[in-house]
From TrEMBL:
Residues 5-243 form the ABC transporter domain. It is a peripheral membrane protein. Keywords: ATP-binding, Cell membrane, Membrane, Nucleotide-binding, Translocase, Transport. This is Energy-coupling factor transporter ATPase. It comes from Butyricicoccus intestinisimiae. PROSITE patterns: ABC_TRANSPORTER_1, ABC_TRANSPORTER_2. Belongs to the ABC transporter superfamily. The keyword Transport applies. It is found in: Cell membrane. InterPro entries: AAA+_ATPase, ABC_transporter-like_ATP-bd, ABC_transporter-like_CS, ABC_transpr_CbiO/EcfA_su, ECF_ABC_transporter_ATP-bd, EcfA_1. Pfam families: ABC_tran (PF00005). It comes from the Bacteria.
Amino acid sequence: MSDMIHAENLTFRYTDFSRATHLALDGVNLTIPYGQFTAILGRNGSGKSTFARMCNAINLPSGGRIWVDGMDTMDEEQLWDIRRACSMVFQNPDNQIVATVVEEDAAFGPENMGVEPKEIRSRVYQALKMVGMYDYHLHAPHLLSGGQKQRVAIAGVLAMKPKCIVLDEPTAMLDPQGRADIMRILHELHEKQHITIILITHHMDEAVQAQRVAVLDGGHLVMDGTPREIFTQTKRLRALGLEAPQSIELLERINQTAGEQIPMDALTVTECADRLEAWLKGGAQK
Ligand SMILES: Nc1ncnc2c1ncn2[C@@H]1O[C@H](COP(=O)(O)OP(=O)(O)O)[C@@H](O)[C@H]1O
Ligand SMILES: [Mg+2]
């Protein structure tokens, strides 16, 4: 059985107009099984977007290989099957609007794939319902909020029935409500439809919600583990230009300033409150 994504020694080199080359990914080995929800983190320029585009065969390897749903992206004949299996959502929702009516916008992907018009209609309506945008199916996309546009972009991807969705900082331009909506939808797609989710983000509170966190730096995969394994390594994270979630930062600060030893493994506000409660109770007993 293949994996959803299997990258072996994956390398990508950009060549600019002056023929200077820049190594954006350098020997990345990463396997993502079907159905996993993975967050990819890394400071600006670490290679996240380059990796995302390689999952969709937009960028082809300069070295090494990447298999998507068992298909080698170097195999041109598989290009459309690869893009059908693994679809992308980008950061800027405005750049993803291709039509003047929401339902036509969401139909663009399956139309390009040559799906029957009747089937497209049913897929598009179903997809718009999944992201809570069915009521807007006859609206003009450019009049929607950023979060709503991003939901339409996700619907367009869902209408292609992908096994995997790669989202490159999809919430970066959204307000808190828009961000929360997108995260809720991603969890639903993951849990109910078993879609593999690869979420590139710089929001630690989003990465905490993933099953796995992979960190890129300078084109290398430098950390890979569960959110708890990754986020408790605060020093390492800082050296990589990343922060721990606020819950862990708070406990760390109390430990440092008050000389306490509260376990610093609180990934959520609730866990943080639990650790603080246990600490305060312990203090009362002293
Ligand atoms: N079109 C390009 N031409 C040359 N270098 C590029 C190009 N796109 C990205 N890079 C470089 O490749 C590296 C990785 O970029 P990218 O994958 O966009 O990182 P990230 O998404 O993590 O910010 C960066 O150093 C960036 O400057
Ligand atoms: Mg990027």
